[in-house]
Amino acid sequence: QVRLVESVGGLAQAGGSLRLSCAASGIIFSTSPMCWYRQAPGNQREWVASITSGGSTNYVDAVKGRFTISRDNSKNTVYLQMNSLKPEDTAVYYCKAESWGAPFWGQGTQVTVSS
Prior knowledge:
Blueprint: E1 3-6, E2 10-13, E3 18-25, E4 34-39, E5 46-51, E6 57-59, E7 67-72, E8 77-82, E9 91-99, E10 102-105, E11 109-114
Parallel strand pairs: 2-11
Antiparallel strand pairs: 1-3, 3-8, 4-5, 4-9, 5-6, 7-8, 9-10, 9-11
């Protein structure tokens, strides 16, 4: 059974930082590309960042220079370090794994940034 369990998000002030983690089980984590998505109220879910099995990263323009995705294959965990947070970063954040040609999603975690 595949499980992706995100850490609790939280509340931050604008300009602050938060770090999300997502622990995976039931997949071969080291070979799985991992992503973070987010969904703000009234909006569609959008891709935020991704990291390949080899550690290459990509980001949506809105978070470049502020967010960092990383992975620890020894812990089957992917992280999203979020710095210089803005109110528009408020959303439910989801991690996603690609394994055996299929997508698997975490349950989502709320991040709220106050102005």
